[in-house]
Design a protein that fits this description.
2 domains; four-stranded antiparallel sheet; three-stranded antiparallel sheet; 19 strands
Length: 272
Amino acid sequence: MLRGMYGAAAGMIAQQQRQEMLTNNLANANTPGFKADQASLRAFPNMLIKAMNTQGTPGPAQTIGELTTGVYLQERMPNFRQGDLMETGNNTDIALLQGIMPVTESGRPGALFYTIQNENGDVRYSRNGNLTVDGAGFLTTPAGHYVLGANGQPIQVGNEEFRVNEQGLVFNQAGVQVAQLNVVYAEDPMQLVKEGNGLLRFEGEGDLPTAIGNGAISFQLQQGFIERSNVDAQQTMTEMMSAYRSFEANQRVLQAYDQSMEKAVNEIGRIG
C-alpha cells in the first residue's frame, strides 16, 4: 500500500513541476525571443511481484506481474524553433532570421544567437533582439548587458539613429561603419542553459563559433522587427489543464490510500 502512495505522490510532484514550467512559458508569451520549455516525463523502473508458498508447500516463487513505482520529470528542454516576426519600426529592434542550417549528427537543427556580455564580463547568448542604447551610446539589452560585435567588443552606436544591414554591419548616424553584430552558431542548442533576462550559458568547451563567413550557414538581420516568443498560448493552456487533471487524479488516489490506512490503523487493528 505504501508503494502505491509513493507512486501517487511522485505523479503529483511531476505534474506540479510540469505546471510550473508551463506557467512560466505562458508568462513569457510576449517576451521577445523567448524559447518555450518542453518537459520530458519518465517512469521509474517497474518492480516485479512474485508470490511464495501459494500452495502451502515450499517451491519456486510464482510471478504475478509488475508494479509501477511512479514517474518523474526527467528534464526541461527549450524549443529553439524560430518565432514569428513583428514589425515595430524601432531602430533598436533587430530580429535574427535563421536561413539554411547544416545537418547535425544529433538530428536536431542548430541555432543562431547574438553574443552578449553579462555584468561579470562573461560571454552569454540571446535571441532577444529588443535592444536599447545606454547613456554612453553602447548597444545593450533591456537589462543593460552589452551586445558584442564580431571583434568581441561592445558596440558603440552613439545614439538611436544608427542603421544595421542584413549582414549585421552597423553604421552610425553619419553613415560610418562602427562594427558588425556577432552572430554565433550552436550545433547542439541543448548545451545552452537559461540564466534569466533572456541570457543563455554555453555548457560546452570554449565559446560558440561565429557564423559570419560560414558558407554552410545563412541568416539575415531585420532592423525595425523583433522575433516574438515561440510559445503557443492555446496549446500551453491545453497542456496546463491536462497537467492539472493528472495532478487531481493522483491526489484522489493518494486520498483513497490515506483513508484505507486510517481504517487499517483505527478499525482493523482494534482489539475488542
